[in-house]
Amino acid sequence: MKQESNMQNKVITAYAPASIGNVSLGFDLLGAALKPIDGSLLGDEVDLSIAEQFSLQVKGRFADKLPADPASNIVTRCYQHFVKVLEQQGNAKADIPALSMTLYKHLPIGSGLGSSASSIVAALHGLNQFYAGHFGKAPFSDNELLLVMGELEGQISGSIHYDNVAPCFLGGLTLMAEYKEQIALQLPVFKNWYWVSCYSGISVSTAAAREILPKHVSMPDAIQFGRQLAVFTDALYRQDEQLAAAMMRDVIAEPYRKSLLPKFDESRAYAEQNGALAFGISGSGPTVFAVCDNLQNAQDINQWLTDNYIQNDTGFSHVCQLDQNGATTRQS
Q: What is this protein for, i.e. what is its function (predicted)?
């Protein structure tokens, strides 16, 4: 269990990385946490400290894209849920310290990078660690916390799914079990893989990206989806890079969603012709990702996407590897 003690009466900063939902072949079932290799920050942060009454400030590059009223912010809902749970556990309201919280919104909204999940995970992980330090025991286990994260994510996206919150919280590459006692499973990874992640600068809502999908999947597509996911998982455990990469094709969402992403086919063609093992849509888009097994190819594709896929000055591209740590906290 993620546990860091002696945090009471301190400023706690929680960080949660960006993530790739679906990872092409695993619609709603696979997720990967990202960490730029240059050390830059790709994820949201939340500061927490004791206060006389609850307050929330929002700062950061994309703060102006969120509702101005703190009561409408998902971080406020995270705090309210936590206090409710603490009271249900028998803690007197007078014994539950109010918190001042600051959300640093570093991830763009509707980017396909798990932006809402990052805020939710940073807030809930920070709250769990803060109150663990205050009461001597974390209110939630990791699995219980994931259930809450999925519930709050569903309030924003319209449906409960864990393929962003799970990797964001646990780190690495995760497979959703959605069993009550085991929401997500961490999978083996290829440590030599680089994940180029490019956000074009436009916004695609998760709800709109789901609406464009067909209501039913054909039997051949369902069989191919199941085969790919099973073979990919097996290849990870056997460390068969070639077979794993060959399975990374999206037969469920990409054929429909790519119409929402200008220059997608052109970008895929360039990446695959220049050493990418796989190329796909990150979550609902518009962010795309390319997987490479050497740094030079990753850097070349990253530069091409920067020059050709990005459409405005809010876009960006990073060469990443998987963030094995997931959500973290530090105190000051």
A: Catalyzes the ATP-dependent phosphorylation of L-homoserine to L-homoserine phosphate.
